[in-house]
Amino acid sequence: MLKFSICAILASSFAIANPVPGGVTNPPIRNVYTFPINHFIENIAIRSNSKLLLTSLSVPSLWSIDPTEATPTAPVIHTFANVTGLSGITETTPDVFALITGTWDLPTTRAALGSLTVWTVNFNSNPPVIKNVTSIVNSTIFNAITTVPGKPHLILAADSAIGAVWKVNLITRRYDIAFSDPLFQRVSDTPGENLGINGMLAKGNYLYFANSAQNIYGRVKINAFGDKIGAAELISTDPIVGGHYDDFDLDAGKNAWIATHPNHVVKVRPDGSQKLLQNTTLLKNPTAAEFGRGSAKERRTLYVTNGGEFTPTFDLINGGVVSFDTAGF
Ligand SMILES: *[C@@H]1O[C@H](CO)[C@@H](O)[C@H](O)[C@H]1NC(C)=O
Ligand SMILES: *[C@@H]1O[C@H](CO)[C@@H](O)[C@H](O)[C@H]1NC(C)=O
Ligand SMILES: *[C@@H]1O[C@H](CO)[C@@H](O)[C@H](O)[C@H]1NC(C)=O
Ligand SMILES: *[C@@H]1O[C@H](CO)[C@@H](O)[C@H](O)[C@H]1NC(C)=O
Fold first, then answer.
1. Is the minimum distance from the CB of 81 to ligand 2 under 6 angstroms?
2. 135 CB under 6 A from ligand 3?
3. Where along the sequence do coiled-coil regions lie (predicted)?
């Protein structure tokens, strides 16, 4: 409640400092799908056939949603045994996705040591083929994962606990810390401040990242093997006090569209200037954002996952996914 009242006060001062150019109002937001109680929706990847793949940190299933349907449903693709939830997901080769499972302690967002496992889900067969790549013995969190450009067998994983990026080779199954940086670090071990590098996307010669605890977005230059070849650069800080950047996507103009707690999506231009879409009704602790695929309309539609919100009795409700058309915003 405190968070929401602080944001309500700041929203008005932000509106004065950053008027919407030309009086363009915020685009309407569509509710695509709301999950039942206690589904903390964590991450999203989108298939070339436009279908959304969603993960939850609190339920060990992978769901598929066809957002082009008028009233979408969310069939389960697979439920993973002996784990409690899923985190990052990324496409590696056409219609093959890597994802992370683990046994999570939700209040601290850490996985039991040894429980993190990297899987691949191959949709080129029906039913999809699901393979265990490797379990990770020495990390407590792989948050977002991203594929190294041009190297479909190499993924990078954000370790929000120790402020480092790991590299996993999907063929040799070897994994290790690749690099770290002061801009990846958490602030403290207090929940809310204990998630350093969180959202991540490798594109071209850069790894773009968001650090939730420090509430910053930036980039770091990488080589063809996904290794860091320069210091991380700060691009922006979320303008809302108490806001926390989470995961994001980049558009063709390298603008980042960042899902931001507790109730906004921020468009960050490459020069660091920002535009804010805030909606307390439909944005409920946004955790990740991804542009649609398929038709021109899908490609300019941003899908935003909602972690959800707690009721006074500590039930988590309204986890799900919403969307809006970014044209003109
Ligand atoms: C939130 O989005 C809904 C749906 O687009 C809209 O009806 C409502 O006015 C928005 N609320 C705010 C505060 O912008
Ligand atoms: C899950 O755990 C049970 C009990 O420890 C074990 O028998 C089973 O093989 C495990 N399943 C998988 C897929 O790891
Ligand atoms: C995944 O494979 C690893 C070996 O790399 C094994 O130790 C682990 O038990 C497997 N996990 C599951 C859930 O099958
Ligand atoms: C983590 O464990 C793997 C597998 O044993 C090992 O290859 C790697 O060097 C370890 N890395 C760290 C940072 O402990």
1. yes
2. yes
3. none
* 175-188 mean pLDDT: 98
- Per-domain residue ranges for the chain? 48-257
| Alpha-carbon distance values, 214 to 126, 220, 242, 256 (Å) | 43, 16, 11, 17
Nearest ligand for residue 101 CA: 3
> Best of 4, 265, 281, 301 to mutate for ligand 1, by most ligand atoms within 8 A of CB?
281
Give distance in angstroms: CA of 175 to centre of ligand 4: 7
pLDDT at 1 over 90: no
- Per-residue tokens: 269: 């231009």
Take residue 50 and report the two structure tokens written for it: 């436009």
Please list every protein residue whose CB sits less than 6 Å from any atom of ligand 4: 137-138, 175-177
Query: Model confidence over 20-59: pLDDT tens digits?
Result: 444 457 899 999 999 999 999 999 999 999 999 999 999 9
Determine how β-strand 76-79 pairs with β-strand 61-65: antiparallel
User: How many other CB atoms are there within 10 angstroms of residue 295's CB atom?
Assistant: 11
Instruction: Give the Å distance between the CA of 83 and the centre of ligand 2.
Output: 10
What gap in Å lies between CA 174 and CA 62, rounded to an integer? 25
Mean pLDDT over residues 305-318, rounded? 95
Residue nearest ligand 1's atom 11 by CA: 279
pLDDT, greater one: 194 or 328: 194
Q: Which fold has domain 48-257?
A: Neuraminidase (2.120.10)
Ligand 2 centroid to Cα of residue 79, in Å, is: 13
Measure 201 CA to ligand 2 centroid, in angstroms. Answer: 33
**Taking the CA atoms of the chain, what radius of gyration do you get in angstroms?**
18
117 Cα: distance to centroid of ligand 2 (angstroms): 14
> For 60-85, what is each residue's pLDDT tens digit?
999 999 999 999 999 999 999 999 99
Strand order in the sheet with 96-102: 85-93, 96-102, 117-122, 129-135
